[in-house]
Design goal:
The chain is mainly alpha-helical and 154 residues long. It has one domain: Orthogonal Bundle (Arc Repressor Mutant, subunit A). The protein has a two-stranded antiparallel sheet. Strand 1 and strand 2 form a beta hairpin. The radius of gyration is 20 Å and the shape is globular. The chain starts with 11 loop residues before the first helix and ends with a helix.
């Protein structure tokens, strides 16, 4: 999607306000995610790995690569989840060099609790917002993301 240059660029003060707002929003999301994870005895990183395992076909090396994390950090998190009895691991039937990770019953209960809390937050926050503003936010956020990604490539 090609982005057009606005007819009139926002002034620098407004841009700084937008950057501050984005930082505040990112911080609020991070804090809320940490609170949610902590409410079920997890760190945010553990939640991320647990969530990925719940989607099946989890590969630690691919997860590490997509999250800009080290394989050692992912292995450490997997050990923590194994110690908490949230995940079990077996050798892959299709390739003995691979391991298959699955959620235990306890892990499934924790993921269900997290999903319910997330759905409640969406209901209490996002669904109460003006749909036109949400649509504008998505449009703006998409455009901003594209610009940031493109700038990061140079």
């Amino acid at each position: 999607m090609a982005s057009k240059k606005p007819a009139v660029a926002p002034d620098l003060a407004l841009v700084h306000q937008a950057i501050a707002c984005l930082g505040r929003l990112a911080d609020a999301f991070r804090r809320r995610r940490e609170q949610l994870a902590l409410s079920v005895g997890l760190s945010d990183g553990q939640w991320g790995v647990l969530e990925e395992i719940s989607r099946e076909h989890f590969m630690p090396s691919m997860f590490a690569k997509t999250r800009d994390s080290s394989a050692a950090a992912v292995s450490r998190t997997l050990r923590q989840l194994l110690d908490k009895d949230l995940v079990s691991v077996t050798l892959s039937k299709s390739d003995g060099r691979q391991r298959d990770y699955v959620l235990t019953a306890k892990g499934k209960r924790i993921m269900q609790a997290l999903r319910e809390e997330r759905a409640l937050a969406i209901e209490k926050i996002w669904l109460k917002l003006d749909p036109h503003l949400v649509k504008s936010f998505v449009s703006f956020g998409t455009q901003l993301s594209e610009h940031l990604e493109k700038y990061g490539e140079t």
